[in-house]
Amino acid sequence: MNTLEQFRKDITEYSVNFCRLSAQYDHTIDHVVEMETVIDAYSKFITDARNKDVWEQMELAKSDGFNRIVEDVRNSSAQCVAIMEKYRAMKLLNGDADKADYFNNIESCIEKEFGSFRITSDSQVIMIGSGSFPMTPILIAKRTGARVVGIDIDEEAIHLGRQIVERLGDGLRIQLEKVFVEHLDMTKDATHIIFSSTVANKYDLLDQLHALTNEQVVVAMRYGDKLKSLFNYPMKQVDESKWRLVETVLRPDHVFDVALYEKTPVASR
């Protein structure tokens, strides 16, 4: 089997495993070990420099059905990441604070999330797709004193997330809500907005946010292109009359990169 065939076989197998692991989730931690093992192996697969070269060969080959395989593994891995956060939350609430390699990787990305756009104690931050283990809201609130509101459409994620905040971030200005961003009172005053890389419709939401936010807001869009698109929803073109890309923070050893957007100045619209 040549390298391209093996690469395609590998991601197909990951997709099958992700679908199986998602299907067996039963709101307990009975299957956590296998999920951690697969997610951690996939994280290493995504950041392996050797696989970047194979990805480029695969793109050039334009093999039949490859785009569909990519979409399948991206969607199924995103579902597993959401479940993995639930497992991690339940483990911590049960007294087990061990962290998987995947979460270590994510947390090491948070430090420079906004590049030169600093978050201070006066900032108001929204995290879209905060998940069951709201790492980003907790770390931002702890390190800066900013007010952070995390939103998610998953009711179980909000329930678990609130318990994690109570356990790890008691006294911090963190609020978690199951609400759409257009219904959040804070949206118009937000100084910083962060999108999870596994929010599928994030660029649709970005377009919608233009009319809902102030002129000074900065948006950090977590994304993954090329090989990283197997694990994240990729960057898309934006309406340049509304938003402009001001910086990309590329991290070769991390599972996602960050695109920073500001509103297009009024004079340029």
Q: Can you lay out the helices and strands and say which pair or pack?
A:
Blueprint: H1 3-23, H2 32-47, H3 49-61, H4 66-93, H5 101-110, E1 124-128, H6 135-144, E2 147-151, H7 155-168, E3 174-177, E4 192-195, H8 202-209, E5 218-223, E6 243-249, E7 257-263
Parallel strand pairs: 1-2, 1-4, 2-3, 4-5
Antiparallel strand pairs: 5-7, 6-7
Helix pairs in contact: 1-2, 1-4, 2-4, 4-7
Find the count of extended strands (DSSP E, 2+ residues).
7
SSE sequence, one letter per element: HHHHHEHEHEEHEEE
CATH class call of the largest domain: Alpha Beta
Unreliable segments of 5+ consecutive residues: none
Find the structural class using helix and strand composition: alpha/beta
Count of DSSP-assigned helices: 8
Give the CATH superfamily of the largest domain. Vaccinia Virus protein VP39
CATH architecture of the largest domain: 3-Layer(aba) Sandwich
Major sheet details: 7 strands, mixed
Kindly report the CATH topology of the largest domain. Answer: Rossmann fold
> What is the arithmetic mean of pLDDT?
90
Share of helical residues: 40-55%
Strand content: 5-15%
Beginning-to-end CA distance, first to last residue: 54 Å
Q: Tell me the radius of gyration.
A: 19 Å
Count of separate structural domains: 2
The side-by-side strand order for the widest beta sheet comes to: 3-2-1-4-5-7-6
Shape: globular
